[in-house]
Design brief:
The chain is of the alpha+beta class. The protein has eight helices and 18 strands. Strand 2 and strand 3 form a beta hairpin. About 45% of the residues are buried. It binds methionine sulfoxide (SME).
Length: about 350
Amino acid sequence: MNKILVTAFEPFGGDALNSSMEAVKLLPDTVRGVRIEKLYLPVAFGRAAELTVKKALEIDADGVICVGQAGGRDKITPEKVALNVREARIPDNDGMEPHGEPISKDAPDVLFSTADAEGAVRAIRGAGVPADISLHAGTYVCNDLLYSVLHSFSTDAKKCIFIHVPYFTEQSTDKPTLPLADIAKGLEAAVESVICETDRSDYGMLCRQLDSLLEGTDNTVTNLANAAAFVYDALPGLNWAGFYTLNGEVLELGPFCGRPACTVIPMGRGVCGAAVQRGECITVPDVHLFEGHIACDSASQSEIVVPLYKNGRVWGVLDIDSPVKGRFSEADTEGIQRLAGVVEKHV
Ligand code: SME
């Protein structure tokens, strides 16, 4: 996953501000190395969805998270379902006031969010912010947006979800509110959960893809070059991915993607040398805390190194760096070792 589109709404219904817009403004530009693109939408049936779909295609987003204000709710509520109906209590910002018509003719009555709404609830609560599941996104523009996005990307792998947020503290004196910073913190946790959801499920597929990519030739340089490019492209939030091969007592730089790197690493030195010496995979959440770490790119914050074997002997390592601290979870460690296994098979 590389990019997520996060949308929010402009003020509507006589309000001067919209909590979705103010909270989305506070989201960082990257989460776990995935770029967050923000888009602010008019509260308008049809038009909000058209702008969202257009932008998602333009930036080739891997996920679309739409955020809207639900004044009166006291928690952040990820939506489970969108309904194929438009029913307006008040006119939208274009003056449209539909009553009971379908959003899309000959389309399903109901579409389910393709990102895990319950997972998002757990993540928001984990950040200390109140959250609950909402069974459907109403019948106004928020529902219109979610339904149309899900329908447009129904044959696509994009993760799509809608998240309603309450008013923030300064917006209301008689309705439930949350501090704006808490709404933003909860949203960031939800974005992270959508990102991790995708990453978790991907390794089986990535191994199959890498396997078929390396099938065509048994040329080692060719396969290591393509494997480095594949890993660098397929996993989000990396700044280096590549190989060192063992020549006697030293590791020598092999094919890679990223900034130019140190060419020779003596046995036992750095994370790479340590992984070879120990004969096991090493995951380093914070490279600054690993004694002897060799910094090739000052942007690197975390790293994983997997030794590569043939006939019981180490012949090299797969080395992956990330500019994000703690980038490699247990699931990543396991998945990356499986990817390394695919490389071993083809070299
Ligand atoms: N950090 C590695 C050196 C190689 S670069 O990350 C590409 C290490 O400590 O072994």
